[in-house]
Design goal:
Blueprint: H1 5-54, E1 63-67, E2 78-84, E3 98-104, H2 122-135, E4 141-146, E5 151-155, H3 157-160, H4 170-203, H5 218-264, H6 269-297, E6 303-306, H7 307-320, E7 325-327, E8 334-337, E9 345-348, E10 356-359, H8 361-378, E11 382-388, E12 392-399, H9 406-412, H10 431-441, E13 445-450, E14 455-462
Parallel strand pairs: 7-11
Antiparallel strand pairs: 1-5, 2-3, 3-4, 4-5, 6-10, 8-9, 11-12, 12-14, 13-14
Amino acid sequence: MRRSLRMLASLWVVLAMLAGGAAVWLWMSSNAAWRAHLDQAYIAGLALHDSVENGSMLPPGIRMIPQAAAPDLPSGWRQTLLTLTGGGRPDLTRGRRIQIRILSPDIQYPVAGVQSFGGGSQAAGMASVTRALAQYCSQPRLYVQSGDGPWLAVDGSQVWGCDAAPADRRLWAAGLAVAALALLLGWVAEVSGAFATFAAALRDHRARNAALPVGGAAELRQTAEAVNAYVAQDRAALENRALVLSGVSHDLGTPATRLRLRCAMIEDDALRGRLERDIDEMTTMIDGVLTYTRAEIGAEPFRRLSLTSLVEAVVADYQDVGLPVTQRPSPPAPARAGTLFSRTSSRPMADGAALLMRGQPTALRRALTNLIDNALKYGREAQVVTGASADEAWIAVTDRGSVLTRDDMERLTGAFQRGPNAGTAGGVGLGLAIVSTIAAQHGGRLEFHRAESGLEARLILARNWA
């Protein structure tokens, strides 16, 4: 069952709040346990000082063993020395001084952590020492000497040893909070990525021909299904329009043929010529609209083809009837090449005969034919050049002597738009609109550039679009 985005968001918010609450509880409980542990060690230090000075009873968990001599420092161990005075400063002696030695296999205890060092009472200093021992996990040996008395070995592992310390769950709390945040952000990224993928597919020109991906949250699935249904209806309407136009074009063929036969019987040459031109314009308009609709549908399957061979075939057709259409050789396109041990250099790509791509051959032939026809209509000749990069292929058609500007040509890409110098030339203003539609069907675009001899129309195509 696909859950809705609202339900998923509510569930994730509740889980995040529970995880945050658990992390806070773990952190606070661990802090409270450690404060209690340190406070217990501090109180034990106060009782230890009273026992050393006054001979009172030792606190629970602490033992004192007299030593015959001063303690020796084992090899590799670290020693921390402290002197506690009762006058607040080491140079003011009030009562006996207390010498403290802490021997540890791995820790040099910070002297600054002892509050009475350089100030404070001896009892507070001893309590600070035991609190410092409880704060760090080690196996220290504590020795105490009061005045000129013997050294006393103090065993308080049950109070400040590692086994006496509470479990520190603060790292678990931080890990739980980070994990909950990572999961929440991951879910947000997944939902955002699903919508981004859907938006990219919707912007894709192939969305008219291919169904959009259906997945993710329920709302996204409903949106994708609705868009797919709309696209299917739109495509069905276009196909129905093309079918109607095809039927009309076919049905008009017979009356048009009869009209031509009857026009041939008219003795007035001027009237006969005008009628024949009207018939030609009518059939051309029907065929143009039908071609434009078929280009919008893009029903022709994509297949692998040689763009250079296609262009050569189209140019040859124009040259066979004596029209001024030529094909110039493709300019060498530099490509970057190099190795880890040599400098990157430029090298020409392979010969244009190997210019392969995926496309619709009939649609591309129609697009190139329209560009050449426009170049001949608005100029005096057409020069065709092909080229390619790793991702795109292009066909450039340049006329000679055209006075049209780039803005004029971009305006002519609209349906039923004709140039101001078209005169009595045939056409209904759908040529560039068809080219622009075919370019979009191939993931490309139609661009115009000013050339030395005239205006260049460049049809840019994606080499692996479908």
